[in-house]
Structures are given as structure tokens and as C-alpha cells.
Write a structure and sequence with these properties.
- By secondary structure, the chain is α/β, with parallel strands linked by helices.
- Helices cover about 30% and strands about 25% of the residues.
- A hairpin with a 2-residue loop joins strand 1 and strand 2.
- The N terminus is likely disordered.
């Protein structure tokens, strides 16, 4: 069953792959998602003006929502998480430049909202949602590649 291994979807002319085709990414009460890396305009330090930022926020929120929708379809309409969730996050970056962790985490706000819109998360408020670093830390270097690996787990 190919739909269990990989899920391709197209949005705005871009073809996305929501998970690694070699492994099953959902097991029991956890799911792994590969989100696109947030655009630089989402940084709290960006000074591009609110109109430009609003367009970028809406686009990134929608893109992350589509990743969530693709995962739900791949998992046969899995109903999403209810209750408390822990998100293990690893930012995959293409080089060893230093990055401000607070800014990286702030840039993910539209991603969480997109996953709420897609029905993957019931909500993203502090009472039911916690973000923690991945096993290797917050940032991993993979030359030529950038994304955000997220594992969502019921707690």
C-alpha cells in the first residue's frame, strides 16, 4: 500500500513529500511531520512591513496545514490529537551559521496554527501544548537541506 509509505501533494505548483518513504511515520499515539523551513520574513527581527509579513504568514500557515492534511489522509483519516501534546522539534539547516533559538521557535507560530486548522492539533495554547528539543538538540545540520522535523506525541 503506497499510501502508507509516502504522501505527495501539490500546492501552488510545488510538489511536497510529507514524510520519508522508507519508514512509517505514525505509530500509536505519535506522528512525525516534516514541515517546510519557515521563511526569513517570519523572524521577529524582520523589518519588511506588516503587509508583506501577513502574506508570508498566511502562505506558511497554509503550507503547514497541507502537510497536516496529507498526513491525516495517509493515515486513513486519523482523527488528530485530543488533549495534551508534546512537540519534539528539530530545525534542519543547510549550514553551520549560528541561529537564535527564540527567533526559530517564534517563526513556527504559523505552523502550529496551520496544524490546528488541519485538525491535527486540537489547540496550541500553553495548557495543552509543549515544545521540546529533539534528541540531538534544537538544530541539526544537513548540507543543502532545510526543514523542520516535528514529532507530535500525546502526553
Amino acid at each position: 500500500r503506497l499510501s502508507l509509505l509516502a504522501c505527495h501533494y501539490q500546492h501552488h505548483g510545488i510538489v511536497y513529500l510529507s514524510c520519508c518513504p522508507q519508514e512509517r511515520v505514525m505509530s500509536g499515539d505519535s506522528v512525525r511531520l516534516e514541515l517546510p523551513f519557515p521563511p526569513k520574513e517570519l523572524s521577529p527581527n524582520a523589518r519588511d512591513g506588516w503587509r508583506k509579513k501577513a502574506k508570508v504568514v498566511a502562505q506558511y500557515r497554509e503550507d503547514c496545514g497541507w502537510v497536516g492534511i496529507a498526513e491525516r489522509k495517509r493515515a486513513y483519516l486519523w482523527p488528530g490529537f485530543q488533549g495534551s501534546i508534546e512537540a519534539t522539534v528539530t530545525f534542519v539547516v543547510p549550514d553551520r551559521r549560528r541561529r537564535d533559538l527564540d527567533n526559530l521557535l517564534a517563526m513556527l507560530k504559523p505552523a502550529w496554527d496551520g496544524l490546528v486548522d488541519a485538525g491535527v492539533l486540537a489547540g496550541d495554547d500553553y495548557t495543552q501544548f509543549k515544545v521540546v528539543p529533539g534528541a540531538g538538540g534544537w538544530v541539526a545540520v544537513d548540507k543543502g537541506r532545510s526543514c523542520v522535523n516535528v514529532e507530535l506525541r500525546s502526553v
